[in-house]
Description:
It contains 1 helix and 11 strands, in the order βββββαββββββ. It is mostly beta strands. The strands form 3 sheets. Strands 1, 2, 4, 9 and 11 form a 5-stranded antiparallel sheet that branches. It has a 4-stranded antiparallel sheet with strand order 3-10-6-7, with no helix packed on it. A two-stranded antiparallel ribbon has the order 5-8. The two termini are 37 Å apart.
Amino acid sequence: MQNGRKPPSANAITRYAVNQAGTKDVVYQPLYDYQTYALAGQTSLSFFQNPIGQSGKTLADTNMSIGGSLPAPQLFIVSAICIDFFPGNDVNLSAVDEDAKNWDDVYTFMKSGYLDFTVGTKSRLQQAPLGSFPPTYRLGGGAALTGQNAAAGTITGVDYASVAGQTFNIIPVSIPSTQNFIVTLNWPSAVPINAAARIGVKLMGDLYRSVE
Length: 212
C-alpha cells in the first residue's frame, strides 16, 4: 500500500516546471489604479500612468510596475472595465437632520462624466455616465438605527451607498508589452462632492507572462 501523495510521472515533470524557455503562462489578473477624487471635483483624472513607488503609490493603489504600459514580455487582454468609488464621509451619522452625504456623493458621481479608454493613439471606448461601470462587489449586511425626538436629542443612522449593476464587458482588447495605454475620466466642468473620495479603475482580464 502506498502512503502520501502520488508523484507526477517522469514525462509530466516539464508541465509543472517553473522555468520553461520560450513559453508563457496566463493568469486572471486585473490591472488596477486608485487615486483621490477631489472635494471640489476636477475636469479629468488619468489612470495607469504612475507605477508603484511613484507619487507615493504602493500595491494598495496600483499594480502597474511601469507607467502607461506593460513590461516586456507581458501581454494583457482587457475584457471588462469597472470603477470603484468610495465616498469619504462618515458611514455612522450622529446628528439631528444629518444629510445622507454618502448617497448624495455616489449619486452625484454616477450620473456625471465619461470614460475614455485609449490604446496607442486610438480610443477603444468612450462611454457616459460613469455609473455605467459598476464594481464587481459591494458591502452587504444589516444595520441598527436609533432615533429620538429631533428637538430633544440626537438621531443615529447609517449612510452607505455604492454603484451597482451589470459589469461593463467589452470586445476584448489586446495590450502588448511596451504599448502605451491610458484610461481617463472626464467632466465638462468640475463636479464637487461633500468630502474627498477614493476612486479607482480596474481593467478586468487575463495577463500573459513568461514562465520563469
